[in-house]
Amino acid sequence: MKKELIFLGPPASGKGTQTSRLSEYLGFPHVDTGGLLRAAIKNETSEGLEAKSYIDKGALVPIEIVCKLIKNRLLQDDCKNGYILDGFPRSVEQADMLEEINKEIDGAGQTEFKAIYFDIPEDLLIERIIYRRSCVQCGAIYNLKSLPPKQEGICDCGGDLTQRKDDNEETARARFETYFKETAPLVEYYEKKGVLTKLNANGNVEDIWNRLLQIIE
Ligand code: AMP
Fold it and tell me: Sign of torsion, CA 164 63 194 179?
C-alpha cells in the first residue's frame, strides 16, 4: 500500500534535515511546500509571484496556490509508492484538502498515513532560525553556532551558503504565531484519527535520527 508520512512541527524543529535523510533511506521523495514555493518564486511563476508577499510576512500562502503545487507534485511518478510531506498540511483546512487530493489521485482508502510530530520547546527555535544557513548547491543545512561548516560561508561540498530571506527575527516570530494558530491544531486532528506519533525532537541530529527510525520501522 502507498505510504504517506506527514512531518509536523514548528519552524526549525529539524523536520527538513530529518526528512532529507529519511527520503534517501526509504527511497521516497521529500515533498516540501516551502521549497516548492521558493522554487516558484525563483522561476517567477504566477503562483510564486502571488506567494512571495505572504512568505515575506511569515503568513500562510493561500490554500488554492499550495494545493495546486502539492497536487501537481503528488501526481508525479516518483510519488506513486509513497512520499514524505514536510510543511504540508499546515492547517486543518489543508489536511481535509489533502484527503480529497489523495482520493482524486488513488481513490479512498488506498494510502496508509503516518503523522510524526516533532516535539521541541519553543524557546530553542528562534535562535536556530537566525543562525540557520543552507547550501545553494546541495541544500545541506548548517547552524553557525551548533553545526558550522568547515570554512566560513562555504558548504563542505564547496557551494555558497545562503540565509533564507524569512529567517530573520521579525518574520520568524510571525511564523511562530501562524504555526500556533493554524498548524498546532493538527496534532489533535491526527491524534483523533489514531495516526499520530510524537517524536522528542530535542537533541542532536543523530539522536533524533535514531528515534525517528524506531518510529518508522
Ligand atoms: P518553510 O520552508 O516550511 O518554513 O515555509 C516557508 C514559508 O512558506 C511559510 O512561512 C509560509 O509562508 C509558506 N508555506 C510553506 N508551506 C505552506 C503551506 N502548507 N501552506 C501555506 N503556506 C506555506
Answer: positive
